[in-house]
Amino acid sequence: MDIKLSVNLIESYLDLDRKPVGIKFFFDKEEFDNFEVPQRDRKVTYCNSVQLASRGKAMKLTKENMGCPNGAMALKMKEIPEPMASGKARFSKNIYHDVETSKSISDQMLFLKEEPAGIAVMPLEDFKLDPDVVVVVSSPYNIMRLIQGHGYFNGYTNNLRTVGLQAVCQDLTTYPYNTKDINITLLCPGTRLVANWQENEIGIGIPFEKWYEIVEGVKQTTNPFERNKNKEGIKKRLEERDLDASGIRFNENYDDGSYSGGKIEINK
Predict the structure, then answer these.
(1) DSSP state, 125?
(2) Whether the Cβ atoms of residue 219 and residue 142 lie closer than 8 Å to each other
(3) Is the pLDDT of residue 150 over 90?
(4) Three-class DSSP labels, 150-192
(5) How far does CA 261 lie from the centroid of its chain?
(6) Sign of the CA dihedral 206, 210, 215, 219?
(7) What residues form DSSP beta bridges with 39?
(8) In Å, how far from its chain's centre is CA 218?
(9) Could you tell me which of 42, 37, 12, 9 has the C-alpha nearest to residue 23?
């Protein structure tokens, strides 16, 4: 499997409204400069760059592009000020009921440890080299299917962490990058404002090391988990991309015969 095929597969097996996004960190300036994607010529919040990439835009970013201080902190492009590190900043805005709780949030967020020379944010399908993280923002149903694809090879998902803040920069990017594990987010008010995500969208961040495995897991779990109506769409999308649809089996699900109904006798 390669990147192009993986995107064709995931867009066939899931009815995505947005493109999967790849994020690549460059810690060598020459490598960043030589990466053949234009640097954005204005400021942008990191989360909005991901949103734009999910609609087909490709861009490179440096710290001069950063339009959000929290995103810049997560990406090690801005130092964390003492009020944020101590918990005083968020406590002062009544986000948490005491400084200790607020500080615990700052302590548990996993940011980049080394400042990158720059970042590439673009549709995953446009990458010729491996990115570091893949971000998919979609319906809860599609995120469920990606988690089921992960579970096919990895079992129970033990390390999901989110708190409704720094959703794209930390939950979906730096946390998966640091832990080499998947994470989900319900997004946050800030990114819903500046990136204009839809109310019914949530996200998943996937370290690229797990991407192909998850795509294969989604494929393998299609017959047990998807209902006939969805299978019809999957089969059609596979055939439109000249991909093999012979493995799609109708009238077959993991819970066949599991449910019962009908009137019961109530003992009085």
Answers:
(1) G
(2) no
(3) yes
(4) HHHHHCCCCCCCCCCCCHHHHHHHHHHHHHCCCEEECCCHHHH
(5) 39
(6) negative
(7) 60
(8) 15
(9) 37
Q: What's the rounded Cα separation, in Å, for the pair 266 and 268?
A: 6
The angle subtended at Cα 39 by Cα 37 and Cα 40, nearest 5°, is 125
Band of residue 10 on the pLDDT scale cut at 50, 70, 90: very high
Q: How confident is the model at residue 85, as a pLDDT?
A: 87
pLDDT in tens, 24-55: 999 999 999 999 999 999 999 999 999 999 99
CA atoms within 13 Å, Cβ hemisphere of 118: 21
- The arithmetic mean of pLDDT across residues 56-64, rounded, is 98
Average pLDDT of the chain, as a whole number: 96
Burial (CB < 10 A; 0-12, 13-18, 19+), residue 124, is buried
Compute the 3-state secondary structure of the chain and give helix, strand, coil in percent, each to the nearest 5.
45, 10, 40
Give all strands of the β-sheet with 183-185 in edge-to-edge order.
Answer: 59-61, 118-123, 21-26, 133-138, 202-207, 183-185
Cα–Cα distance, 194 to 44 (Å, whole number)? 9
Average pLDDT over residues 174-199: 97
Helices and strands (H and E) in the chain: how many: 13, 6
